Structure formats: structure tokens, C-alpha cells
Amino acid sequence: MKLTIGITALFLCLILTKVAFAQSHEQCIHCSMAVKNLQFKAQAQTQSGKIIWFDAIECLVNYLKSKNENDFQKVQVTDYNSGKVIDAASAYYLKSKAVPSPMGANLSAYMLESEAMSVQKEKGGEVYNWEKLKERFVDSEFGAIDLHHNHHNRPDAYAPSGIMGDHLHPKGGFMLSLRYMNMYMNGNREGSSKISDESIYERYMVAPQNMTMQMFMLGVMYAPSDKLTLSLMQNFATKNMDLTARMTMANGMQMLNSFSTYSSGVGDMKVGALFGLYNRNEASFHLNGGLNIPLGDITNRDNTPMMNDVKLPYAMQLGSGTWDITLGITFKKLYDKFSLGIQQLNTLRTGTNSEGYRFGNLYKLHTWGAYVISQYVSASLRLSGSIEGKLNGEDSELNPMMVPTADPNNYGGDLVHGSLGFNFLLAGSKLILGAEIGIPLYQNYNGIFMNEKFGFNASAKYNVF
Q1: Coil, strand, or helix at residue 251?
Q2: pTM of the prediction?
Q3: Of 121, 296, 377, 404, which one has the greatest count of Cβ atoms within 10 A?
């Protein structure tokens, strides 16, 4: 746990350093990105004298769509060749893929038409005056902002905190992330119905009471190309379980004895890849792939009233022990004030681990919708369902008659969750904070398993570049 705290502190220091750097730049009023590429910078001055900034010409023109241009004292762009600020209405504009602009419309500005034509002759593309440019922006294809690259500039462009692998990065993009997950379980269910301790004691010696799982996950994402983003994630977990044993004394009397077990340490590592298939008109569709590297300990032990140094049940171990493959798809669509998303993931277990078993295959479906409350805040609702197969094999050290969590027949089942979350954009949209709380709407286990009460997810993601 000290290692986890140390890494977390280091990560937060890096974020704060980057936040301070980002806050030294102006911020685009339209897309919230930091204004750093001076060749494409634009600005407008209100009647009160306030200067508002844009990180690209396309942001300026899109912003003016819903404004009266005459309400501004000045509307200015930056001459691509000289870096001087010039009047937007008298400038000429080149749209060329060979001159990419920050938000994807490939627009650059020039003081003279001859200068624009000269660059056009070398780079290709089309030249427009101010009025013609605004007319062409009526076609969203012409002036569309690339919301799925450029690190997303809306809070709802990122999925809720409980979703991973929801977006690609532009070529060279690099993101650091820290996630915290907490799940609390209380009591037990058999199938979909709650079951009492007395019913458990008819088949087992010990009845689970409460379980808390906490996990920190450090992540890195890097994009070697616009269509491919790679990821690496490592988690650190702690698990606590409170149990009550019904013990028969020498005189035949029965006594209840409460105790706790605990495990903590490094969990499995996950490497992944996202491959983009479609990214247009504020919609994106990509493939998800991943490999689980079994670094988590599956031989954790603890003391109990019945025996010291006993191996803990499957649910208390820190990893799967197998090389698991995850395959899936993700689709997202942004609208004016809200967004929708769907993700389907399949985790396929391979082989048998060193203790003689493997968990069942896991199939998950997430759907969510998010609403933009402000430029920096969005709220989301998520509905998730999962189907997990039965555990195959068994650990020979575990006594399946001791406690339900040691019985391999009790693993797997169907779950449905509902979650409410919020996303926050800070530091010119480079820092994304998220929080989400969820409750189970339906639980149906293959046998006897603990009753889930709620789950909580929090995340901090920072786009380094």
C-alpha cells in the first residue's frame, strides 16, 4: 500500500505541474483548448473591450454562427506567414490538408490574396475570402471540428469514469490516468434472492457478512498513429471480508465467531489497443483489444479461527492467474448538448492457472448518455449488464464446504447496474476529472454469492500532449 500511495503522490505532482503550465496559455472560448499554436490563433473584441480567444480559425467561424458579427469591435486572425494579427474580413483563407490546423479543418489565413495563392500553388487546396468562407461553413463537413482527436474539448466527449477504452488519441497523443474503484457487498444471495445466514449454515460452516474492494489503477495511453492508440494499465488492490463462523464446541453447544480476512498487493497488468474504423460528423467507432498479464497473486493467505495461514478463497485473490483476451467495440456520437455511447466487451479466459482453475468468460455491455451542463461540466447516466460463466476447475487447497466463496459452483452469473456520473474539464481541457456512483438493478448468481450494494469510481486523466 505504501508503494501505491507513493506512486499516487508522484502522479498528482505531475498533474499539478502540467496544470500550472496549461493555465499560462489563453483558452479557446469555443472548444476550451489551450491556445498554443500562434500561426492559427484568432481573437474577437467585444463592445466592452474584452478579448476572447480562439485556437483555430474554424473555432472562430463556428462561434460566430450563433452571434452577430457586428456586435464585436474587432474580429481578427493570424497571418500564417508573418504571425501578425490581421482583420478577419479582409484576410484570405487557404483550406489545405498540407497545412493542418489545430481543430482539424485545415484552415490558414493570409493578409494578401497573392500570398494565399502562392501557398496554394505549393501545398494545394482552395482559397476563400471571408464571406465565402462563412458561407462554406454552413456545410458542417467543411468546417467540422475534430472532436474525437485533439483530446476532446467537451466534458461529455469522455465516457463515464467506469468506462475504459472509450476514445482514441491523435498521432503522438500521450495520456496519463489514475483511477480509483470501490465496491461494497453486504449479505448474500442465492440466484436472484437474498439468503439468510441460517440457510448458509445448513451447507457451509462460514457465512460471509461484508466485503470491500478498493483498487487504484495507473494507466498510460499513447497513439503511434491517428487510427491506433495503445494502453498499459496496472492496478493495486485491497480486499477485506468480514465473516461469521458457526462453530460446534466440545460440549455440543454452537457458538458464532466473527473474523476478517485481508489481501493486498499488485493486481494483473492489462495491455490494450484501440483501432479506429470511423471518425466523422462527431461520431466515432473503434475496435477494442486487450491482453491480461497475470501478475496478481492468487496464493494469498490469512489467519482464521479454524486455522492459521489458510489460503483465501477465489474472490479474495488479486488476479485471475490466466492470460485473458478482451475483444470488443465502442461507438460514440456527439450532439449539440448531449452525447450517447455504447461499448461491448468480451473477456475470454485461456488455459488453467497454477492453482488448477480459471474464471468463466465475461461479457459486458455498457450504454450511456451524457448532458452538457456547462462548458466544463457534464452529467451522465449509464446502464451496464454483464454475463459471467462458471468457474472451471478448482483449487485443491480450498475446502468447498467451508464457505460459499471457496465453492467453485458459486461463481458466475448475470448482473445489471445503473450509474450516475459527472465529468469536469480543467486546465484547457487537458485535465479530465470524473466521478460515478452505481447500484445493482438486478443480480442473479449461479449459486450463493455476496449481495452487491454499491460501487464508486473516480478518475483523473491528463493529456500530456
Answers
A1: coil
A2: 0.72
A3: 404
